[in-house]
Input
Amino acid sequence: MANSIFSPACNNFVGLNNNWKRVIPMTCNNMSLPRVLTTRLSATSRNVFKWANSEDSDMSTMEASLSLTPDFILPVERRPNLAEVSKLGDNVPIIDMGTGDADGLVEEIARACEMYGLFLIKNHGVPQELCESMLAGVTDLFHLPPKVKALLVSDDPTKDVRICNHYRKAEEKGDSKAKRFSMWSEVFKHPWHPSDQSFADLLPSDPPNYRKIVTTYAKEIGILMSRLFNLMSQGLGLEGDVLQNRLGKNPLCRVQANYYPPCSNPDLTLGLGVHTDRDALTVVLPTPNVEGLQIMKDDRWMIVDPVPNALVVNIGDQLQVLSNGKYKSVLHRVVTNECQSRVSLAMFYGPDKDALIGPIENLIDDQHPQVYRNYYFSEFLEVYRKQEGKNRKIKEFFEI
Ligand SMILES: O=C(O)CCC(=O)C(=O)O
Ligand SMILES: [Fe+2]
Output
C-alpha cells in the first residue's frame, strides 16, 4: 500500500438537504482530479462492501482492507501493466445527443462506431436524478450483508438472476482443472425489458426500491437504445429501422451491475478481464469521476476518461457482424484503484435467440466481401458458453 492515500475521506458521506454529499478524496493515484459530487444515496449506501462469500464474523469496516488473496492475482502476462497505459492525447468521442444537427449526429456516431467502437454520450435524455438513484440502488444491493447476498450467489450461467465473480482460466485450451483467477469485482445479473416490466418480479425485494428504480430506468434506456440503433442504421446508409428489426421481436436484454471495491495492488489484478460485449449494444452507467474502463485502440490500452452525466455506449459483437465488420466491437477491460470503489451498470441488448444474424446484404459488395457466415443467435450463445472463463473468440468462430 506504499502509495495508497486511503483515508476516512475516501468514503465520507455527510447529510445535506436530504441528499448525501460524497466527498471525493483530494488525490488518488492514476485518478481524475478531485471533485465533490452530490448523489442521492440511501442509508445502506453508507455500509461497507463485503464479498458475498465472506464470513459474517468479518468485522472489517474499511473496503480497502479486503485482502488480495492469491486467487485474484493474475499470471504476469495477464496483468494490466498500468505504467504503460497512456493518459495523453486521445480520448473516446463525447457526442452531444441534444444537438439539432441530425445529419451531423449520424455522421459523428458512425465515425465513433467505426474508429472506436465505444463512445460517451451527453444530453442523452435519461434524467440525471434517475441515473443517480440507479447507481445508489446498485450500491445498496452490493452493500447488503454477505448472508443476504449469498442467497443470490450462483455460478450457473443458465440462472437468470444471480450474483457471481467473473473468473479467467489459466490455460487457453482449458481443461476443467485449469487454475481459475477471480476478477476483483462482484457482479449482479438479471434480465430487463424496455416495455414489459414483469422482469421485476424475478428481482430480490431487498434493497426495497431496486425494482422500481430499475424498471423506470429500463424504460428510458429502451427509448435511448432505439434512438441509437436508428442513428447507427442510418450511419451504415440503411433505413433507420433496419438494425433493430434484424435483432428480432423478443430481444435478449440483460443487466450486469458491477462493483469494484478498492484494491491494495491494482497492478496485480483486473476488475473485469479483457473482453468484447457479446450482444448488439451496451449502455453503461458508471460512477462519475472514477476511472476504470479502458479500451484497446491501435494495439494500446487507452483510458476512457469519465465525464459527469455521460453514459458509455459500446458496440457489441452482433453489430460488428451485422455491419459486416464496419462497426467495431471493441476489446475493453476494467482496472481497479487503491482508494475508491467504482460501480457500473451495463444494460445489454441482444438479438432474439431465433434471430438470424449475419452481414446485412446491402453492406456486401466486391470491395466489402462477406466477413461472417450467417448464424442463429442461439448458435452464437452455445459457442459463447463453451468458452466460459477463456479469452473469448466467438465472432471469430463465425468468420468465413
Ligand atoms: O465497468 C465498466 O465501465 C464496464 C463494464 C463492462 O464492460 C461490462 O459489464 O461488460
Ligand atoms: Fe463490457
